[in-house]
Every structure is written in C-alpha cells, then in structure tokens.
Amino acid sequence: MKNLAFIDGQNLYMGTAKLEVNPWRIDLARFRVYLEKKYEVSNAYYFLGFVQEANQELYEEIQKAGFVLIFREHNPAMIGKKKGNVDSDIIFHIMKKMYKKEDFKKIVLVSGDGDFKLLVDFLIEENKFEKILFPNKKFASSLYKKIGATYFDAIDIFDVRAKIEKKEKGSLGN
C-alpha cells in the first residue's frame, strides 16, 4: 500500500509562480519524484479548474510528469466567468476512495487553503493522513497550526525548493 497525493493546481501555481516577491516555477517531473521518494506516493492527482485550449502544453507537461490530471466540470457558458475552484472535487475524490475502501495507506494534500481543514481533521482521526504540503507557508491558512507540525510542511523552504525548482535553460544544473 502506498500513499495518494491530491494537488490543488491553482493553489500550487499561485503560491509559487504568481508571487509578487521571488516567484519560482516547479519542475513537475522533479516534484512527482519528490512526492514518490519523500512521501511514498504511488498515484498523484492534479486538479485544475477547467480546460482551456491555450494551456494544452501545460496539460501535457503535467501528464508526462506522472500526474493524473482532473478538471473541474463547468457549464460551458460559465467558463471564464467563474473561478475554477477545485476544493469540493478534491474532497469528493478522497471521500469516494475511502467510502469504496480503495487500497491506499494515507493522503498527501498539496494546498494551503483552509477549506480542507475539516477533511484533514477527519483523515487524521481515521489515521489516513500523511501530510499537507503548503506551496507557500506564508500564505497557508492559520487553521492548520492546530494540527501540529507533524502534519504539515512547506515546499517553498530552501532545501525542498532546491530539489523541485525548474532550472532555467542555460543555468547551472542543466
């Protein structure tokens, strides 16, 4: 039995590449390896708000890196008018796996969003929670302070960032 990872793609992007100060990009292939080695993740589900034709290269990159890509379902008339909030989709997928008693050890969640706090509490109670990884600890919900540092970590800390940051072409390390 291995762990499963659930990634809030928008939260990950906003907490890294869209920062006003010191933005950075994640090398998705290196991040996938990091999840496997550090947290024994066998399957990693990457949730995005909705499909956009202009982002096909990104979708291919996510899939090539070894993530299962899941899009939020929207009414086509609403695309571009509403936020691609995937929180309820992630919660549903995790609860469905538990309900169907799928064979996994624990859950790793990648998000800093406080909307997952009830889920995290429940998974801890059921001994099915490994860790929540904050894309940016500075912007992580303060609700998680109550669960204790055993259950959370940040990927923007120096040693983790060094392992998973996308190296620009022509820089050292490429």
Explain what the structure shows.
- With 174 residues, this protein is of the alpha/beta class.
- It has a single domain (16-164), classed as 5'-nuclease (Rossmann fold), CATH 3.40.50.
- 32% of the residues lie in helices and 18% in strands.
- It has 6 helices and 6 strands.
- It has helices spanning 9-14, 28-39, 56-64, 87-99, 117-125, 158-164, and strands at 3-8, 41-48, 68-71, 107-110, 129-134, 152-154.
- A 6-stranded parallel beta sheet has the order 3-2-1-4-5-6, sandwiched between helices.
- The longest helix is centred in the middle third of the chain and has 13 residues, at 87-99.
- The chain is globular, with a radius of gyration of 16 Å.
- The termini are far apart.
- The mean pLDDT is 89.
Please outline the helices and strands.
Blueprint: E1 3-8, H1 9-14, H2 28-39, E2 41-48, H3 56-64, E3 68-71, H4 87-99, E4 107-110, H5 117-125, E5 129-134, E6 152-154, H6 158-164
Parallel strand pairs: 1-2, 1-4, 2-3, 4-5, 5-6
| Beta strand % | 15-25%
Total beta strands = 6
Structural class label? alpha/beta
Low-confidence regions: none
CATH homologous superfamily grouping: 5'-nuclease
Tell me the helix content.
Answer: 25-40%
Keywords:
alpha/beta, six-stranded parallel β-sheet, about 170 residues, single chain, globular, 6 helices, Rossmann fold
Summarize this structure briefly:
The chain has a single domain (16-164), classed as 3-Layer(aba) Sandwich (Rossmann fold). The protein contains six helices and six strands.
